[in-house]
Amino acid sequence: MEIPQLEAFLAVGTFGGFRRAAAALRLTQPAVSARIRALEDSLSVRLFERGQHGLALSAAGRALRPHAEQVLQAAALARQAVHDVRPASGGALQIAAVLSICTYLLPDVLKRFQTAHPSVMITVRSGHSKEVLELVLRGEAEIGLARSLHHPEVETVSLRNDPLVLVGRAASWPTSTRRARLAQIADRPLIFFDRGSSDWTLTQGLFRRAGLVPNVALEVETIETAKRMVERGMGLAFLPHLAVGRELRRRSLVAIEIVDAEPIARSLDVIHPRPRPLSAAARALLQALRSALSEADGPPRRRR
Question: N or C: which end of the chain has fewer CB within 10 A?
Answer without folding.
Answer: C
